[in-house]
Amino acid sequence: MTTSQDDFTKRKLWGGRFTGATDPLMHQYNQSLAYDKRMYAADVKGSIAFSKALQKAGIVSSNEQAEIERGLRVVEEEWKNGKFDIKADDEDIHTANERRLSEIIGKDIGGKLHTGRSRNDQVATDMRIWLMDEAETIKQYLKDLIAVMANRAEKEVDILMPGYTHVQRAQPVRWSHLLLSYAHGFLTDLDRLNGIIPRISVLPLGGAALAGNPYGLDREFLRAELGFQTIGENSMHIVPDRDFVMEFLQWASLLMVHMSKMAEDLIIYSTAEFGFVQLSDAYSTGSSIMPQKKNPDSLELLRGKSGRVFGQMAGFMMTMKGTPSTYNKDFQEDKEPLFDCVDTVSASIRIAEGVIATMSVNKEKMREALTADMLATDLADYLVRKGVPFRETHHISGRAVALAEKNNIQLSDITYEQFKELSDKFEPDVVESVFNFENSVEKRNALGGPSRSGIERQIQVLKKGIETE
């Protein structure tokens, strides 16, 4: 028997009020199953909990609830095993699951599941369940990345390198200090993610379309059953609320900014001109025309994908800014940017972990890049310890730098007699006291500095942060 377009429309959850056929193009434009099917497990979980709430309220019997739960488990297994048969009128994951449930257990029981529930609160609940699970996975990926950085910093604490500002050589630091600067940024990202999870973990279910339900469904039971931290107190607010999506996209954008900055540093340091680091073959590619090339594609993709994530965030915020109160179909545009963002961030963190874990460091190249002029501040500090005001020592040190440049020599090649002409506070120990890179770094032992004790403390802070978080 041929199914008419009118029958096609009537089978939809909202089809009873409509007598005309749905334009097939409109159906395709409207459907979201192609991408929201990844929430199948969250939808089943929410529906099972809702069936138990219906039983508590006396809407379904214990036998009916058990049958609904059995049918939903079958639906979940079909999705998991790739055996779910998608029908033409399956508009979204919620429609598809309810349709299949009724096929398994019959419409008389299956049709009761949607009592007191709207797709509005159902989809909002599913998304929050799904994102809470994904956030936990992302947290673990971040912890793994931070751990790799901390462990590497611990092993390579002896390696010195130039620190840069404005991409100009500035002062000597430990390679570990640079590596840990990225790790502490990611630890802050981990803390921020923990901060938004309570705002994701707010239960919409029971809010129905916008005005709640008349069946006295126990929302506190639903909260506990689904593992939410709190309940949405106002149905008109919580059902259409997508702040949690925008906030996660904002969080992800900031994370990717940090990822991109790290990638840019390592791209620069991997060039032949620097030669400080070399990526492993697993995270590099070659040129199609120049066989000598080893391209840092993994890092370039990390840098590039930051723009992709930011674009998803900006795009969805523009979608939301002009919508009136309660649910609007515009909100269907929340899923693709969120899903894409979660996928991109998850993959990016894991790629970054692999890059950091496998790249090699050329400590000789780093050491060779250290030059005496980078100790100009140490020269000023030397005079400060002799009682000269820093503003004056800075000027004297600058004159010493100019003298070295004029004579085409290193700052450390200036003789004691020449230093004495610049200031009578210089003593014969000036060269020995100032021009030692290891000593320079070790003197910077204030909290947060690059000395050995500073590195050890930073590592402990990181390890504690990922263990006790």
Automatic annotation (TrEMBL):
Argininosuccinate lyase C-terminal domain segment(s): 374-442
Enzyme class: lyase
Sequence ranges assigned to domain Fumarate lyase N-terminal in this UniProt record: 16-311
Gene3D superfamilies per UniProt: Fumarase/aspartase (C-terminal domain), Fumarase/aspartase (Central domain), Fumarase/aspartase (N-terminal domain)
Gene Ontology CC annotations of this record: cytosol
CDD domains documented for this protein: Argininosuccinate_lyase
Transmembrane segments: none
Enzyme Commission no: 4.3.2.1
Secretion signal, residue range per the UniProt entry: none
Family statement drawn from the similarity comment of this UniProt entry: Belongs to the lyase 1 family. Argininosuccinate lyase subfamily.
Protein name: Argininosuccinate lyase
Annotated source species: Filobasidium floriforme
Phylogenetic lineage: Eukaryota, Fungi, Dikarya, Basidiomycota, Agaricomycotina
